[in-house]
Amino acid sequence: MVTSSYRTLEVLGPEHEFALVDENLKCMPIVDYIIKDVKGKVANSVEFPDFTLSKELQMHVLEVKPNSPFSSLRVFEERMYDAVLETANLLRLRYGARLLGTGMHPTLRLCETSVWSHRHRQIYEAYSKIFDLRQHGWLNIQSFQLNISYSNASDAVLMHNLLGYVCAYLPAITASSPIYEGVVGDYLDNRLYFYKKAQKVVPSVAGDVVPEYVSSFEDYRKKVIERYSVELAKAGADSCLLYKEWVNSRGVILRSDRRALEIRVMDEQECVRSDVALSAFIRALLRGLMNDGVQLLPRRILVHDFNSVIKFGLSAEVHHPIGPFARDVCQHLLRTALSYATEEEKEYLPLVQKRVECGSLSESIRKRVGVRAQKASLKEAVIDVYSALSDCLIRNDPFF
Predict the structure, then answer these.
(1) Most exposed residue of 193, 206, 298, 346, measured as fewest CB within 10 angstroms of its CB?
(2) How far is CA 384 from CA 21, 181, 184, 347, 369, in A?
(3) Distance (Å, rounded) from C-alpha 147 to C-alpha 66?
């Protein structure tokens, strides 16, 4: 998606993951039918003029991504919102289906979905020999992934390390997965909680989600790719999983094939505008950190803070010199972003500021479900709130 013709921070390549659901929000594992219906055969993806629909591991999750990255946030929002509307219209007319954002499907039972069983299924079969794929960390996760371009190795390494520092605190404002299997989970970011657990058989594949600091591409290959490849091989993994950079499941990974850093730590949000706002925040923040510099904290502190943040969000106690709570750190990061934001980026940052002040989407969902559950059952409250979230996606309207 991102090529060498782009400057550092010039373009953003988003990847949005949405659940397919019926009018009662029950998941619909029909991605293969949709692609076959449009393309005429089962394939991994189907391309439209401005965007592509792709399969994921889960048969009920559809990825929507642009055919080219964006330099303009306004164009990003316009094109991806159009893609959502076109996809939603196709789903409604042919299948009676809807799209649902957020980081996890709120009522899914694992028996209600399945793993992609068509072309390239050997990759998932290889994973299944090592990992138990029938768990939420594999079958019930939806992320908003963002690719950010770099133009040279030094910028790539610097961005990787800065994003590793940032991703420890980012879930405080990007969490959107408070509910799964119809109950309110113990974590504000249950997606990341289950994501961490899913690959514990070979811990080095995801590490602690917070990536290690590296000094060069070669250092990255040795510390990360070679390490998990050796451990996978010892566990009996097929060769298709060895020495592949996309196997890395940390919250930030280097994609040399795209000349981009890919951020994987964010939950999918409720609408495109919210995803664009997070993208504006991250790009402006990176610009500021690359110009001003920052004292990177020891990784053990970042891992501690990350684990606290995914459970408690902005109220998490952290070991950061800027303040004792994640909210203090996020306010500081937002001030940095505002100082270096372009005029276009500043149009979107008030949405991030509101998240920092009022809480992540997870916190908004928890509150709304709690209020609704005072007059209805918890199940009814969850369906009611998530139906509203599905409507937010179609209206491109942030949820607070």
Answers:
(1) 298
(2) 14, 15, 15, 31, 8
(3) 11
CB proximity list for 5: less than 8 A, separation 6 or greater: none
Show the DSSP H helices in 168-298 as ranges: 171-174, 190-198, 217-220, 227-234, 272-292
CA proximity to 24, closest of 142, 108, 137: 108
The CATH number of whichever domain residue 85 belongs to comes to 3.30.590.20
**H or E, element range at 387:** helix 378-395
pTM score? 0.97
Q: Are 183 and 378 in contact (CB under 8 A)?
A: yes
Distance, CA of 271 to chain centre: 13
Would you say the C-alpha torsion 318, 366, 56, 395 has a positive or negative sign? negative
pLDDT at 65 over 80: yes
Question: Which single residue is written with the structure tokens 């990061």?
Answer: 333
Judge contact between 116 and 35, C-beta under 8 A: no
Distances in Å between the Cα of 152 and the Cα atoms of 75, 158, 223, 261, 390 are: 26, 10, 20, 12, 40
Instruction: Tell me the C-alpha distance between 222 and 215, whole Å.
Output: 11
DSSP reduced 3-state for 47: strand
Cα–Cα distance between 104 and 193 in angstroms, integer?
11
- In Å, how far are 40, 341, 387, 390 from 383, measured between CA atoms? 34, 38, 6, 10
Q: How far apart are CA 268 and CA 141, in angstroms?
A: 9
Residue 127: which domain range? 12-390
Rounded CA gap, 76 and 84, in Å?
Answer: 12
Query: pLDDT tens-digit profile of 28-54?
Result: 999 999 999 999 999 999 999 999 999
Tens digit of pLDDT for each residue in 187-206?
999 999 999 999 999 999 99
pLDDT at site 4: 53
Q: Does residue 396 belong to any structural domain of this protein?
A: no
213 within a domain of the structure (yes/no): yes
Question: What's the CA gap between 145 and 376, in Å, rounded?
Answer: 35
Taking the CA atoms of residue 187, residue 190, residue 192 and residue 194 in that order, the dihedral angle to the nearest 10 degrees is 110
